[in-house]
Amino acid sequence: MVSRQQFLMIGQTKRQQVELMGCSQKTIETFKQLGLAGPLLQKGARIYDICFWNGTATQPLRRIGREVHYPPGVVDVQDPFILLVHQGMVEDVFLDDLKIRGVDVVRSTTFSRYRETTTGVEIECFDSRDLKEDKKPKLYSSQYMIGCDGAHSKVRKSLLNATYDGERSNSAWGVLDGVIDTDFPDLWSKAVISSETEGSILCIPREKNMTRLYIELHPGSAPMSSEAATEEFVMKRAKAIMAPFKLSWKSIEWFGIYKVGQRVAKKFCSESEKVFIAGDAAHSHSPKAAQGMNVSMHDAFNLSWKLNLVVRGLSPASLLSTYEQERRKIAQDLIDFDYGHATAFATGDPKALAENFAKNIRFISGVGAEYSENALNMPEKIRRGALQPGCLMVPARLTRYIDANPVNLQLEIPMIGQFRMFFFTNNIKLASPFLETVCTEVSSSRTVLGRATAAANASYKARGQPATDMDSFIQPQRYVPVSKLVTFAIVTTMPKARVEIADLPPLLQDSRWTFYLDNLMRMPTATEKWIGPLMEGEVAIVNIRPDGYVGSIGRWNAHEAESGMEAVSWLNTYYGAFLKG
């Protein structure tokens, strides 16, 4: 960050239509919680199923299988589709939001090098529009720097011991984007087409009536030069693989060649943890599983909320070490999956490809990207429901008390950099002493959360988040009326007629927009789905991190006199591991 009003982008121009992005369920969910999903959902193409086609020397090309992309019994998602958009559309969504919030983007900036200082990082860049031979660099000072400069990252190359480890195969693929004329019946589904004699194609529908084809160039033969792999040659290969179906192009939007490689940087940050890399700068893989921007954006998301806490003085700098711990694991999981996925494509084995897809569908959707135990992810002693620390929330539907609106609990509270603390109880009145104790203590200077809340409220008062017109509809202040650091919420199975907002402790009365009734008569209920059935008198607390991952889950018997203070001690232990206070 160069200043409060200026964001430094290392790059030349905005992306156009060539870079295709398949938004996974997790990415769609993140965009929704950030208030950015609308334009993408409106303009993107949606994929609900995947078809497998196979042809041999003795049998013509035929469909051998069709699967729902996100089988409901295997992966629990609210939007069971992949959303296909191009990278320029995604960038526009971010750029428009930044502009509304008074943040400018600096373009035509080429990174040269950096050096660390006692206060942060000094970054040397050149203006690529300056054609002078003796042009002078521009210097920027920053507390931190994030290199998102792609697979050939200069930032990564400048980091000590951050070499790109992995393999690059000789498997070459052509990519064609355009409007297709064909009698192939599954053009608007995701289709895997394997010809024993000719090779393989991955067919993906796009926006604006376009289709992307990934075409295998030299199955079972020696690699060919990039010069020989012309657009005409790739089109000819595609027609041969698709035969006996006809195939022609009404228009070509883009053509390219790529080779498959799976690599992960040894380090995602400098020794001082002032310089970081994310996205393709940290890991690369084949594009056929549509994971690139999904994983990359969640690299940046994972790091950004942690930087926010550290820069505001709410967390120690040691919190930043969890970025590499968590995201390098996900990168390695991605590479392991992609290697099997790309190998199945290269061998043209439709059965192996279908098995690889089924085995990894949770990871492909994004909901299977799971973190190991660390300061942010406290292991649970007894697991009953679907939630577990280090994993994402699952869909759960219930009713908002204040206006009787049915809502999706995992999406209901907007992401504005805060944690979420959910209380679950079957009977608010019986749990009242427990709730009073916990709510009183976490609001006081006697606890880590109380002290951190005071610091956060002061920080956001001094350096607030710029508002937008959309905020007048979202009303984000409803969700942080007490603490800018934590949204407090309560869920109960009590009938609405038996409970009032006045029955809640003052902290939860002030948080009335996050008071929920688990009364939609679904089986399992939202409570049971998330944390399992509650025992008589039991109260559960679920802490959710700012990125939507479960941090910790605790359970207490509210009938026991000391249970409230035991819960306070547990919260002190959890939040004290990464917050100042």
Quick structural overview:
This protein is an alpha+beta fold and 581 residues long. The protein has 3 domains: 6-47 and 79-165 and 262-365, FAD/NAD(P)-binding domain (3-Layer(bba) Sandwich), CATH 3.50.50.60; 166-260, 2-Layer Sandwich (D-Amino Acid Oxidase, Chain A, domain 2); 397-576, Glutaredoxin (3-Layer(aba) Sandwich), CATH 3.40.30.
Chain-averaged pLDDT: 90
Helix segment tally = 16
How many domains? The number is 3
The proportion of residues in beta strands is: 25-35%
Silhouette: globular
Which descriptors would you attach to this protein?
disordered N terminus, Glutaredoxin, D-Amino Acid Oxidase, Chain A, domain 2, 3 domains, FAD/NAD(P)-binding domain, 581 residues
Write the layout of secondary structure elements.
Elements: E1 6-8, E2 20-23, H1 25-33, H2 38-43, E3 45-47, E4 49-55, E5 62-68, E6 82-86, H3 87-100, E7 104-106, E8 109-116, E9 121-127, E10 138-142, E11 145-147, H4 154-158, E12 164-182, E13 190-195, E14 199-205, E15 211-216, H5 231-242, E16 247-265, E17 275-277, E18 283-284, H6 292-311, H7 321-347, H8 350-359, H9 361-365, E19 397-400, E20 406-408, H10 409-412, E21 419-425, H11 432-442, H12 448-462, H13 471-474, E22 486-492, H14 506-510, E23 515-517, H15 526-531, E24 538-544, E25 550-557, H16 563-576
Parallel strand pairs: 1-7, 4-13, 11-17, 21-22, 22-23
Antiparallel strand pairs: 2-6, 3-6, 4-5, 8-9, 9-10, 12-15, 12-16, 13-14, 14-15, 16-18, 19-20, 19-23, 21-24, 24-25
Helix pairs in contact: 6-7, 7-8, 11-16
